[in-house]
Amino acid sequence: MVTQQLDNASAAAGDALALALAPLRVWIVGSLDVVLPLQRYGAQVHAMDSITALYRELAIVPCDVVLIDTALVDDDLSTTVEHLRRRDDLGVVLLVDAKTPHRVAEGLWAGADACMSHRPDVELLAAKLSSLRRRLPGEPVQMMEAAAAGDTSTAWELESGGWNLRAPSGQVLALTEAERSFLTLLFASPDETIGRERLIAALTNQPWAFDPHRIEVLVHRLRNRVRSVTRCTLPIRAVRGSGYRLTL
Questions:
Q1: Which pTM does this prediction carry?
Q2: Which residue among 31, 75, 120, 176 has its CA within the 20 to 30 Å range from the CA of 150?
Q3: Where do the domains of the chain lie?
């Protein structure tokens, strides 16, 4: 009987751990092998080989936590961390080799949320990310808690200075910088068609070098992410030959 109870308790604990990081999006500038085991905790993982690649991805699709192998940061680490910390909904964890301990202090002074071993223990890393997510605004855990509590609103809203989009379902989606600029312009003039020229000007300070098709890609990905997270359809209409309109 006691053995059965212990087995049941162990199974329950295993089930809880299987969802501990769901649906946290964890990206790493480094080896995919480091974060791949996090999938068994429910995390979504993605790897890239440089800070430049990270910036390029973040401009299109957001994530919740970034892990950075400091050995891959050629530029000043402080500058990199400070740039990432401009997003108050993004967690930053540094992976530091024992041969470069000075990078721990450098990263923490710049605003990193945590520093860990270059090859961290998976269970310790999962526990650290679970703790970190509770301190980040608009995180999946808060979205799920709000849904469970029946917290709903009646309209689409931009919150946290435009960095979060709240759906009528009450769930909140963290936005990228490009999505924030795009939606801020549309929310400022609902039911009005915003021309491509104005949209491009809001997305870049070099409009002459901007490919207009990037707006279509942005809208397509934004719609899909909104539908996936909130189960709601974002009310944006493409007006042929003109631009886009938000219909609230």
A1: 0.55
A2: 176
A3: 2-133, 140-246
Quick one: CA dihedral 176, 53, 134, 114, positive or negative?
Answer: negative
Tens digits of per-residue pLDDT, 121-176? 999 999 999 888 777 654 444 444 444 444 444 589 998 888 999 988 888 888 88
pLDDT above 80: residue 207: no
Q: According to CATH, what is the number of the domain 140-246?
A: 1.10.10.10
Query: Can you spell out the DSSP letters for 183-201?
Result: HHHHHHSTTSPEEHHHHHH
Q: Tell me: domain 2-133, CATH 3.30.70.1230, correct?
A: no
